[in-house]
Amino acid sequence: MSVRDEPITTDDGRRTLAPPARRRLQILARQQFGAYAVLRVADPHGPPPRPGQFAMLAAAESWGGGAGERPFLPRAFSVLRARPGELEFLLEDVGPGTHRLAELDVGDWLWVLSPLGIGFAEPAEELAGRRALLVGGGVGIAPLAILQDELTASGAHATALLGFRDGIHAAGAALLRDARIATNDGSFGHEGLVTDLLIAELDADDHAVVYACGPPPMLEAIRIVCAERDIPAQLALESGMACGYGACFGCVVPTKDGYIRLCVDGPVIDADQIESALIPGTGH
Amino acid sequence: MSAVDHLPAADLPTDFCGIRLAHPIVNGSGTFDAIAARRAFGEAIVEQFPFAAFVSKTVTVEPRQGNPPPRLWELPGGLMNSIGLPNKGLSGYMAHDLPELAGLPVPLIVNVMGFTRDEVAKLVSAFAERDEVAALELNVSCPNVETGLIMGADPTETARLLERVRPLTRKPLIVKLTPNATDPGAVAEAAEAAGADALSLINTIRGMALDPRTGEPWLGGRTGGVSGAAVRAVALAQVADVAQRVSLPLVAMGGVQRGLDADDLLRAGATLVAVGTESFRDPLAGARIAQELARMRANPA
Fold it and tell me: 20 to 30 A from B171, CA-CA: which of A86, A111, B50, B139?
């Protein structure tokens, strides 16, 4: 692909199709935000993702095959931010996959399959005069950054409410603009849960749409709050994935209509599609 | 860089049970969903279809939702899955999947499974009359609910199944052997004697992982099937053994990641090689492996 083709979108504009070939992309920058690392990669030919879409990432070296043991499968990451010809990903070193990725530095290479899944609905039609509340927890703040970029560019105001376990994680809040912060230990911002901030916002003005991503207990609390107040909410869920494109049937989550594969029917879903955001096997 | 982008299709013409294929690389059943891949990648995946034939996911008579999550567990050099054969059932497959799969640029092999011989017979009969279907693969890695035996773990059960369904179709019948048997070679001989046209192996190897926090089985289905590089040596040994004991064409699979791995299985006696878990890591793995194989054949070391 020498020329960037016009991206093809489906699913009501919520999915930009991915080229089926993995792209070998070079890391341009690596920046630490407390407990998190941001990798910025050059992606000169990749179609730009919708906010909420994700990529399957693997280090080009020492990943699967050969003498490598784990990691073996690529890992799914929401796109943190997209600029022309560049993608950014947010990672926290919590397991063998993220540990290997966190070792990488400028000049190293990644295998990237992207963009995948269904992203957030287009803000203009979704908001219809409501204000956007972006609620994130931990590394789950990633897709809210690219969404905030889009909302801001379209002239909408997007209030970011972000929750972290402690101060070193709260450094990630710098990735969004004007974020209000809650920490479990009170070391930064409000001491308590990000849902406390959400409830306060909704008490003040509930003419809103909620966009959320974070650990399952946080998403479940948000789902309940929004259902009680009849506030539309889109949730970016997580589930262990082997492939990212519907091949393995491994990432199913239960919905009111049975199991869906989160990689092709998500990861962003409407909160009223599910009975619970507490998906078995996720959130740890 | 996109070294694997727009690969020319490998030119290694292969005959399999009278079906002409462009090369010997296919997919393992249940490891590639061409319909979902089209949602993710659009027509590009059809235009660059990575396999020389498409083997669809197991179809059962009744729809199945599959096993509760979690369904996956990564292993050193592999993967364990407990998916549970979710599918739309025979009528759903005929109405929704078959028309779309018939549009692929390669022959279609349909994998079927029944919990009784009558169920398998119903499935085989239904596909026997469909011109879109080039061949049928029988998944025998399930219990016969009438006898409690895993059909494919027992030579007599396997022979009785073949005797029941062989008269129902002239299409090639491939029996997918399970490695979870005392002697897969004996099952292979029984399948050959009872009229199978080909055999495929290996299916996943039964395994278990415990949730480190609870000590309980991690997978929703409690046990799962191990695949990937970790099973490659087991696959090669079983393929070599079965190849010695039958004269049927074999579809060999198990941990194939490179042209070299495919070549090993072909040398051991296989006619086709299937790629499974590697497609999870790289959607175009099949095309890449076929290309690597073609390069090895063109320039033997």
Answer: B50
Q: Is the pLDDT of residue B263 over 80?
A: yes
Domain A9-116 matching CATH 2.40.30.10: the answer reads yes
Contacts of B69 in chain A (CB under 8 A): 239, 251-254, 259, 279-281
Neighbours of A22 (CB within 10 A): 28
Q: In whole angstroms, what is the distance from residue A270 CA to residue B59 CA?
A: 30
Instruction: Give per-residue pLDDT as tens, B175-186.
Output: 999 999 999 999
- Residue B142 annotated to the active site: yes
| Two tokens, residue A89 | 């990903």
Q: How many CA atoms lie within 13 A of A245 on its CB side?
A: 33
Per the rule left: phi > 0, alpha: psi between -120 and 50, beta: everything else, B116 is beta
Q: Determine if the peptide bond prior to B202 is cis (ω within 30°).
A: yes
Distance from CA of B279 to the nearest CA of A (A): 8
CATH number corresponding to A123-273: 3.40.50.80
| Amino acid of residue A100 | R
H or E, element range at A82: strand A75-83
The complex's ipTM works out to 0.93
Q: Mind telling me how many Å the CA of A116 is from chain B's nearest CA?
A: 6
Task: Name the DSSP class of B93.
Answer: I
